[in-house]
What we know:
Layout: E1 4-6, H1 17-31, E2 36-39, H2 44-57, E3 61-67, H3 75-85, E4 90-94, H4 96-103, H5 109-131, E5 135-137, H6 142-147, E6 172-175, H7 182-191, H8 217-239, E7 248-253, E8 258-262, E9 265-278, E10 286-287, H9 292-305, E11 310-315
Parallel strand pairs: 1-6, 2-3, 2-5, 3-4, 5-6, 9-11
Antiparallel strand pairs: 7-9, 8-9, 9-10
Helix pairs in contact: 1-2, 1-7, 4-5, 8-9
Amino acid sequence: xxxxxxxxxxxxxxxxxxxxxxxxxxxxxxxxxxxxxxxxxxxxxxxxxxxxxxxxxxxxxxxxxxxxxxxxxxxxxxxxxxxxxxxxxxxxxxxxxxxxxxxxxxxxxxxxxxxxxxxxxxxxxxxxxxxxxxxxxxxxxxxxxxxxxxxxxxxxxxxxxxxxxxxxxxxxxxxxxxxxxxxxxxxxxxxxxxxxxxxxxxxxxxxxxxxxxxxxxxxxxxxxxxxxxxxxxxxxxxxxxxxxxxxxxxxxxxxxxxxxxxxxxxxxxxxxxxxxxxxxxxxxxxxxxxxxxxxxxxxxxxxxxxxxxxxxxxxxxxxxxxxxxxxx
Length: 328
C-alpha cells in the first residue's frame, strides 16, 4: 500500500515564492532520506517539482520523462530542450507500446485515466528499482485532487496522478506542490527561473483524453495533426495581435462519423472540435470568441491535412462550468 507524504507549507504563498521554495526544499530533504525519482512530463507543475527536488537532493534525485506515445507533435524533442534550458538532467523512457496495450478497447474516460495512471506507476516502479529508491515525487497541484473527488467532494474527473494510482503501489508519494493552484505554481516557476513558465497546460494522460472513444495509434495520429494546427494558428493569431494569449488551446477527436464531400464523391470521416479558453487557475474558464478568419484557417488546414479522415471541424463555446476544460 502506498503511503502519501504531503509536503505542504500551510497557506498558499504565491506572494512569497522565496519562502515557499525554502520550506519545500527543507521538507523534501526531510521526506526523502536517500534517493527518489521524479515524474517529469515537461509540464510546468512536474518541472517545478523536479527543479525543487534537484535543488534539494542533487544527484540523489532522477527526473524520469516517459514517452507514452500519447504526446503532441515534436514533444519529446521540445521537452528535452526545455529540460536542458532548466538545467534539469533527466532519463527518457520509451513506453508507447505499454500504454497502447493498456488502453486497447477502452473508450470510457474514467477507465482511460485509471489505466494510464496505473501504467505510469508500473513504469515508475521499474525505474525506481533501477535507481535504488522507494520514493516518487510528482507535481500534483490542488485542482488535481479537488476534481478527483473524495471525502465530501464529488468526482468531476479523475486525474491520473491521483485517482489513477493503484492501491498496491510500492512507492511513497511526495507532492511538494499539492496545496498550490496553477497561477501560484507559475509564480514559483518564475522565481526558480524556469523558462517559458506561462506556456499552456497539457494533460498528464496526453492525447488519450483528446481522443474521445477508443484510443488507437491511428486516432492519436489524427488528433496530433489537428492539435498541432490549432496550436500553430492560435500562436500565429496572438503574434498578429488578432487575439489575446489564451490559457489553453487544443483539438479533440470525436467518436462519431460524419458525411463530407471530396470532389464529386461522398466521404464518411471523423469530426474534430477546437477548444480555446481563458482562465487564471483552471478552476473556472471562459470559452474565447475567436475571429472567423482564425477559425476558417484552422478548419481548412485540418481538413486538408487529414483529407478523407476528418471532414468536419466544430468550435466549443462552452465555459467551465458547466463543462470542464478538457473533454474527458
